[in-house]
Amino acid sequence: MSFQTILITGATAGIGFEAAKHYLELGWRVVFTGRNEDKIASAKAKLLDATSVPDQLFGILCDNATPQHYSTLVTEIREKVGMLDAVILNAGVFYPKLFSDTVYSELEQTMLVNFTGPVMLLQTLLPVLNNPCSVVYVSSIVIERAFVTASSYSASKAAFEAYANVLNLELASQGIRVNYLRPGVTATEIQSKAGMSQSQVDELNASLANLPLGRMLTPKEMLSSFEYLTSSNSLALRGAHITVDGGYCL
After folding, report:
1. What are the angstrom distances between the C-alpha of 220 and each of 186, 216, 250?
2. For the segment 175-231, what is each residue's pLDDT rounded down to a tens digit?
3. 65: buried, middle or exposed (CB in 10 Å: 19+, 13-18, 0-12)?
4. How far is it, in rounded angstroms, from Cα 77 to Cα 88?
């Protein structure tokens, strides 16, 4: 059986998990990564409900902050699926801190996971990217709006977009295009990982009541944008962004 094949990083939960499930349902072969073997196994068990074809889904350990994982990932991609038709660079971290309280290690980790890691991982992936190949980076509305405590996160997302705009020129002859999805405030594990309590998440959701959408976004509301950006309908797009924010940036 012939499949289109996609790699989705950081897909054990949230936006990445829903994207992996969606592409399985569309009939794609999905390779997904996570930073923890147990979480990979748990996600794979849940995702198998979306397919009856065992060799349609592969979970592989790869942490953006661990460069040694990149070449291993490429080796496994070669062995298991051959080449990729699309990549969603979704893995990321968010450590909310006021600038006055920011410490070097957290700034360094944010840049490593959200910027340096995806850049160097993409470089390592070049030999297994088909012509054409769509690369979608999960960015953020922090590119368009400033948020208190999000300075490091904002810088990391902006840095990747600026870097990848140049890659669109350098990689054009290989048929590789890079575009960006900029989600607004989305209900995922990123809030709890950032140290927010459930009551704080509820307060955040309530604070969005006056927006056109009136609430936080859900990961599933990103799927149609992913589908467009990874389809042949987006062949003419280079360095473009789709903002899915419920009207936050209006």
Report:
1. 10, 12, 22
2. 999 999 999 999 887 677 767 778 877 787 788 889 999 999 999 999 999 999 999
3. middle
4. 15
